[in-house]
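One record is set out below.
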Amino acid sequence: MSLRLRLLTAASRRFAKRQIAKAADPVPLRALFERVARQLFRPPPFTLVRHTLLAPDLAGLIISNRPGSHPVRPRKAVLYLHGGAFVAGRPAGFVGLTARIARLTRLEVFVPDYRLAPEHPFPAAVEDARRAWDSLIARGYRARDIVLGGDSAGGNLALGLLAELLAQGTSPAGLFAFSPVTDLTFSGESITANADADAVLPVERRADLVRLYLQGAAPDDPRASPLFASFRNPPPVFLQFSKTEVLADDSRRMAERLRAAGGTVIIDAWPDAPHVWVLFDGQVPEARQALKRAAAFIVPLVEPDQTAASEAGKR
C-alpha cells in the first residue's frame, strides 16, 4: 500500500464519508461530487470529448483518444454507466476515469446522462441504460463489439442491463464493474463487518438510498438488485473491489451467481483501498495498476487475437 493511497484513504474517511453521512438530501451530494470532480478527476492530455444524443431525451458523452495520439479501434465501444448512488453524478464528472479507460483500451466510451432519483425514481435509470444500449446498436455497433462497464450504482445498472439482454437472447462482449452495488436489500455480511473499515460509504445511509431511489419498489426486484436476477450463459465478467468496503460481498456473491449460471468471472479484490479508487488515477499508483488490470480484461473481449498484457503494458 503506497503512502499516497494511505493518505487518500484517510482523507476520504475524514471528508467524503462525513459529508455523505450528514447530507440530508441529494443536492449537496451532487454539488460535492461535481466540485471534487472538477478539482481531482481531470482527463489526461489528448482526450476527445464529444456530446451526443443517445435518444430524444437522453444526452451523453463519447470519450475517446484524439486523432493522431492513440488510434481508436473502429466500431468497438464501451457503454459505461457512472456511479453516484443513483442520486448524483453526471458524465462530465467521470471524464477523467472514462478517458483513461479509452486510452488503455483504445475504445470509444459512451457515457449516458441517465435520469437520477429522487426526481426520477426506479426504474428510470434502468430504462435509460437500455435506451443507451439500443442507441449503440442503432448506430451500427454489434452486440459482440460492446463491453458494458460501470462503477458503484453504475455497476448495478450495467449488471441489470446484462441480465435483461441475456433474457432476450443478446449478449455483449463482456462486462467490468468497479465496486458495484448488486443487492439493495443489503444482506451481505460485509455491510456490517466493514462498516468501520470502509473509508467512503456510511452504512447508516443505506435506508435513505433505498427510499430515494426505489420509492416503494421492492429492493429485491431483480431490476433493482441484479444479485437476484437470472443470467443465462453470461459473457466474461470482471469485478474489482476493495476487501474493506461495505460492498465487498456484493461483488463476491455476484460472482458466485454468475459462475453458477456458467459464466467466467474474474474477481480482483484489493486490500485497504477506498470505494472506486480507480477514480484517482494520476494521484495514487494503485489506481493506475487497477485500471491496467481492467484494460487487460477488456481488450481481448473485442480483439481476441490481441494479448491483454501487450496492450495494457504499452500505456
Notes: The chain has one domain: 3-313. The radius of gyration is 18 Å.
